[in-house]
Structure formats: C-alpha cells, structure tokens
Amino acid sequence: MEAKSASQFNLSSNVLPAGLLSGGEIRSAVEEVVASTPVIDIHTHLFSPAFGKLGLWGIDELLTYHYLEAEFFRSSGTTPEQYWKLSKRERADAIWRALFVENSPVSEATRGIVAVLQAFDLPTDATALEEARIFFRTQSVEEHIRRVFQIAGVSSVVMTNDPLDPEEQQVWSSGGQNHAQFHAVLRLDRILWGWPEHWQRLASQGYAVDEKASGKSIAEIRRFFSDWHQRMRPVYMAVSLPDTFFYPDDSLTSKILGEAVLPSCREFGLPLSLMIGVRRQVNPALRLAGDAVGRADLRALENLCRSFPENRFFVSVLSRENQHELCVYARKFNNLMPFGCWWFLNNPSIVEEITRERLEMLGTSFIPQHSDARVLEQVIYKWRNTRRILAPILANAYSLLHNDGGGVSRLDIQRDVNRLFRSNFESWTGALPG
C-alpha cells in the first residue's frame, strides 16, 4: 500500500473533533498550563521556620550564594583570603558592586537576582542595597514564605536534612517541624562517603558502630535509620556522590549502601536519590564554591538497578556527558527516575538540550527540574526559568504530534504537565505528609 502524505490525512482541516486543539492553538495552551500548574520542588536546601537561622532568605544571602561568589572572583581583584575576612553584609556589597554595577548581570545566577528584585518591585539598577535590605528586614518569615511560594508557583518543597548536623538535631529532638509546605529528606552523605570521619557521631548517639563498619555496625546503622525515619518522616533518602563512585566495590560506601541503606529504603518504602558527579574542593580557597564536576561511570547505576529491582532510584548526574547514558538506563530499568538539571547544568542552553533529549527518549516519565535552592527567594527565578524553557519544548513536541496525525487536547497537556511537575514524584514517594 502506498504511504499517504500528511495532506492526505486532512491534517490541515479546520474541522477537529470536540476538545482537540488546532495547530495554532497548541503553543498558547501549553504556555497557559505550564504557567498555572503548581510544582513540587523535589530537592532544595531550604528549611522551614522551625529551623530558625538555618533557613536563609533576603538580599545578603542571595548575593553571597556560592554561584555568585565564584563569578565575583573572576570580576574582582579581591582574593578569597580577603573576601572571607569581610562580614556577610560587606561581601554582599562587594558582589553587588562588581557584578551588578561595574558589569552587566547577564549570567544565569546574576539575572536571577534581578528577577527576584523585580518580583518585589525593588530597584534593579541601584548603586546600593539599602532599599532592598529594608524590605527584607521588615518581612514576617511565615508570610514571606507564603508570598514567595505563590509567586514561584510552588506548592511545597523538599528539604535536605542531615541527621548528623548538631543544629538540625536540636530541632528534631525538640519535636521537629510540621509545616505543611516543607517535607523532610534523610541525607546520607556523612554516613555513606564520609563514614571514617563521622562514624563517631553515631556512636555518640548510642549506636554500637565502629570505623570499619564491622560487627554489629550494619544492624546499628539500620537502627539509626529506623529511629530517624520515625522522627523525620522523610519522603526519600538522598546522597551526593563523587564522580569516582562505583558499585559494587570493596569500599565502605558500597558495603553500607548495599547492606544498610537499600534494605532500609525497602523496609520504609522510600526511594533513594543519587546525585552523582561532584569533584569536591578542587579549589579549597573558594569553600562551597570550590567544587567541580567529573564524568561518572554509570555502570554503577546499572548494577544498582539490576541488583535491587525492588528499590526505586531518583537519579541526577552532574556531568553533561553522562546525560544520554542516564536516559538509556532509564529505558532499561523502570525503577530509575531521572530528575533535574543540577548545579553546573542549570543553564538554559544545557537545560533545553537535556529536557528535549529526555522527552524524546522517555516521554513524560521523568522529573524535569528541581530548584536546588539554598536561599528562599531563589525559587522565584529558578522556576520562572524552568517554565520559560519547558513551555516551547512541550509545544514543539505537541505540534509534531499534531502534524503527524495525533490529536492534542488541553486535558492531555494538563495531564502531562501535572505528571512532570507533580505526579511522577508523588507516585514514587506515596502521599506526601502534611
């Protein structure tokens, strides 16, 4: 049978079944749905008000964010040694002067500051920060959180909670937090890759562990997880791993991961989030800004997904070169959920490339983004940017589907955006508490 051309399928007909969009209506429908659908921000470093000063917000915190600090040292004669001697206010002033007054704020991170100021009708071209400081100083934190989330279109955020951090321990031991828009995550970095330096913190809490994770240590680590699961009610466990991570090998990381973490995740019904690819402290003088990126061997992920089919894995990889491999593995293992464009990848040109690739290979069975926000107001510009990038990508995909003979309705678009922004996460974690 001779293949029909597109025109022979009456794709250009003005008569469409009820509810289906014409080619000209698709883009505006996508833009409206993407703009109006609230998102669950599945990975942040934000804290609810119960954590007090651990929760960062305001202009000085925004400007001294480590993304901007790294840029500052490229556009200023100030050395890291001189910079760290300044007060936070003085650092913020120096960054504002160097990146916003003496240079145009065209980078992703600096444009984000401009977007936040604009959202609150604050001057974006001032030579000093006093008006912005007065504004943030006069805000009530509870009301400010509500307003920021509303502007950003965020319904709730997932925190990063380290059970070995003394300041956080005080909060959890005093009853924890019950803010409905903040959800806990049990972070494992110090346990998984930092065990030799941190095992004594478990021992000090009454757990019979040792430096080699021998004897009763594995059972005690699982008891530790059980106690903190009951205390935190986390929605998943999480760890950030270096580019050298591999599984299985003869490291303590592999042992604790395979014998304690993954069995506990199965017991509690929790996914494990793996964020892979950090090269830590390539320039220690920059402190938090001194980490870099390395390509990881994703056969480790293959081995985990195959060996533990009953575990669910959220995975984000930091190297651009690992992204295609991640998509391929997601096609092979339905217990793997790719998510986000993390840290050095969170730039529009790269986000667009990765998101298009995922959509083409995985349909809507992934989570396109998380904010990774450390300062409250960052969710405003990070989710504005995500929506700005995602809408044309989806519109193009639906237009191609329409041109190839498929019907597209607004309900279809709403279902798909809801899946990307919310339900993929909800289905993997169960009903969110609160």
Give your account of this protein's structure.
- By secondary structure, the chain is α/β, with parallel strands linked by helices.
- It is 49% helix and 8% strand.
- Helix 1 runs antiparallel to helix 17 (378-403) and helix 12 crosses helix 13 (252-268).
- It is globular, with a radius of gyration of 23 Å.
General shape: globular
Largest sheet: 6 strands, mixed
Question: What is the mean pLDDT?
Answer: 95
Q: What is the helix tally?
A: 18
Strand elements, count: 9
End-to-end separation in angstroms reads 59 Å
Structural class by SSE content = alpha/beta
Low-confidence stretches: 1-13
The radius of gyration computed from the alpha-carbon positions, rounded to a whole number of angstroms, is 23 Å
- The helix/strand order is HEHHHHHHHEHEEHHHEHEEHEHEHHH
- Give the proportion of residues in helices: 40-55%
Work out the strand percent. Answer: 5-15%
Summary?
With 434 residues, this protein is α/β, with parallel strands linked by helices. It contains 18 helices and nine strands.
Mind sketching the topology for me?
Layout: H1 23-36, E1 39-41, H2 59-63, H3 66-74, H4 80-84, H5 88-101, H6 108-119, H7 130-137, H8 141-152, E2 154-158, H9 166-173, E3 182-183, E4 186-187, H10 189-192, H11 195-204, H12 217-232, E5 237-242, H13 252-268, E6 272-279, E7 292-293, H14 299-307, E8 313-317, H15 323-332, E9 336-338, H16 348-362, H17 378-403, H18 410-429
Parallel strand pairs: 1-2, 2-3, 4-5, 5-6, 6-8, 8-9
Antiparallel strand pairs: 6-7
Helix pairs in contact: 1-17, 1-18, 3-5, 6-17, 8-17, 12-13, 15-16, 16-17
